[in-house]
Amino acid sequence: MKHLSAHENCIGCSKNGMLIHEVDVLPENKGLKSAMMMDRKREGWAGIPHGGIGMGAIMELISFHENYPTTANALFPLQIHFRMGGASARIGDRVVIRTWPREGGAEGEISVNGAAHAYISASVSFRKDEKSLRETFASYMPASIDDLGQIKTDVPNDKNCFVCGLERQEPGLRRRFQVIDGNGQTLAIAPVGFAESDREDFFWCRRGDVLHPLALLALLDETMGWGGFLLSGHGGVSVRFSFLFTRDIQIHEKFIVFGRGEQLKGNVGKRLMFWSSGGIAVVKENGALEAIAASSGQFLALTELTEQMKVNLFPSELTRKVFQIAGPSLPK
């Protein structure tokens, strides 16, 4: 076991960080190994760790590989693929994170309590573009903030979720989401950096002068989840993600995260899957939007999570409103 030489001001690996602190060097392929407890401060759905925590932990450990690029030109475009669901994780579980460098990138996985199957697996590629992700996001991203569209409703919040929990005792991202009508399309959005409170509520999740991947991956996950909910009327768990980042986001930059439901397959009585796309656009000084990330996700809808939304989200009037927008299933 060795101690890491922590990144400066890093929420991932510093003394008070929330992802990794010590690592083992694996004998095979110069890999790295660390462990983490999935406690309540890492919660997403009630009793379930937020997917962004695991994704952020994998990216943090990969950043200590010998082949990890030290310049932006060598790192971006950064392509990341995650797969979830080989095993489940619950609050209270101990998870083990393993990563291995490979030519042009890295691989990683998280297992629960030493289980044989991974809870999350990852494939990361440096300097690799993914045109289809960029094209999908570009098809509905407005050119400027003035073209954002009409706000249909604010979205209710959870109490303890890492991303949207407003009553957490531990630090969280405290995001508020909105539903907008953007050129006839129903989109979920999450604005960041427009409120003074974001300095403490969001930008603490940093690595030096840039936002930590944890914040961006977790927020894209949740925004795409809302985009899929607006299409399906159901809550779901993450199955697969693809992300493309073209640059870092500096702390205190203003940006908007988008999510749009793309496709439904099956039915909730048996097996309902939904697909979403998303992206991040930074707001420039003249109001123009610069796309710096694009993403896609696949989710498995679960009736128990939909019922959890009806009970746990607040205020109740906003919960009722988003269900009315999403479909005929109304909270009781």
Topology:
Layout: E1 2-3, E2 22-25, E3 32-37, H1 51-62, H2 72-75, E4 78-84, E5 94-102, E6 105-112, E7 118-125, H3 131-138, E8 150-154, E9 178-182, E10 185-192, H4 198-201, E11 206-207, E12 210-211, H5 213-232, E13 236-245, E14 255-267, E15 271-283, E16 289-301, H6 303-312, H7 316-326
Antiparallel strand pairs: 1-2, 2-3, 3-5, 4-7, 4-13, 5-6, 6-7, 8-9, 9-10, 10-14, 11-12, 13-16, 14-15, 15-16
Distance between the termini: 52 Å
Overall strand count: 16
| Main β-sheet, spatial strand arrangement | 1-2-3-5-6-7-4-13-16-15-14-10-9-8
Biggest beta sheet summary = 14 strands, antiparallel
Poorly predicted tracts of residues:
328-332
Using only CA atoms, what is the Rg? Answer: 19 Å
Average pLDDT over all residues: 93
Structural account:
It is built from seven helices and 16 strands. The chain has helices at 51-62, 72-75, 131-138, 198-201, 213-232, 303-312, 316-326; strands at 2-3, 22-25, 32-37, 78-84, 94-102, 105-112, 118-125, 150-154, 178-182, 185-192, 206-207, 210-211, 236-245, 255-267, 271-283, 289-301. The protein has a 14-stranded antiparallel sheet. A two-stranded antiparallel ribbon has the order 11-12. β9 (178-182) and β10 (185-192) form a beta hairpin. α1 (51-62) runs antiparallel to α5 (213-232) and α5 packs across α7. The longest helix has 20 residues, at 213-232. The chain is globular, with a radius of gyration of 19 Å. The N and C termini lie far apart (52 Å).
